[in-house]
Known about the structure:
Blueprint (H helix, E strand, L loop, with lengths): L1 H34 L4 E9 L2 H12 L3 E4 L10 E9 H11 L3 E6 L2 E6 L6 H7 L2 E7 L5 H9 L2 H10 L22 E7 H11 L3 E8 L5 E7 L6 H7 L7
Parallel strand pairs: 2-5, 2-8
Antiparallel strand pairs: 1-3, 4-5, 6-7, 8-9
Helix pairs in contact: 2-8
Amino acid sequence: MVKVILRLIxxxxxxxxxxxxxxxxxxxxxxxxxxxxxxxLENVQIEAxxxxxxFSSLALSSDIPIGLEIASSEDRRTSYAVDFKKGTxxxxxxxxxxxxxxxxxxxxxxxxxxxxKKGHRVTLFQDLLKTRIGRFSVxxxxxxxxxxxxxxxxxxxxxxLNVSGTKYRAPDLTGFYFPQVGRKFVLEVSNSTMKxxxxxxxxxxxxxxxxxxxxxxxxxLNIRLAANHEDTPKAFxxxxxxxxxxx
Length: 247
């Protein structure tokens, strides 16, 4: 009799707790995707000479991973500013795209992606970001510039650049500190798009929190990562955030 009861109860318990587990995991995934949007921000004051500088400041000072695709209509003479007293990250982003209507935003894989709306996108940027790379790895003590260089020199990305006749020109770096993605940061991915790789870097790196794809004044391709120093105190990041520039 006991065996019969157990035979009936065990499958029922498995079904119930299995569903509870699945629901819990699903809720956690939803919660994780929403966490970034509902981050509370206070007294965000940024004055930047470009949209890249604007979002790099926000990312580095607030420790928010952000990726930016520059619009074809972007005016390099435009300055960007925000005086955001208090609210969520999504409210700040909505305020930004309301003022700059050529852009939209979404949160994907735990990263804020800011990108141009239809009719404002650069075809080359779209092609590069959706290109799948067979294998890509990052070793310890890799600089931001070296990581981007590794991406650009993959056969898949080289093919796109060759077909378009576009050259990549890395930014000129000066000073004693070359931004790194983390002394112990390593990454190994396969069959991933360029965009997903960049997103994964800024989501997982302890220092690099921002990437941007744009062009230089001569029309050459420019992809950059922005990073804090690994030993920079959080309070100092917040204080200096609006002084961190990409250009």
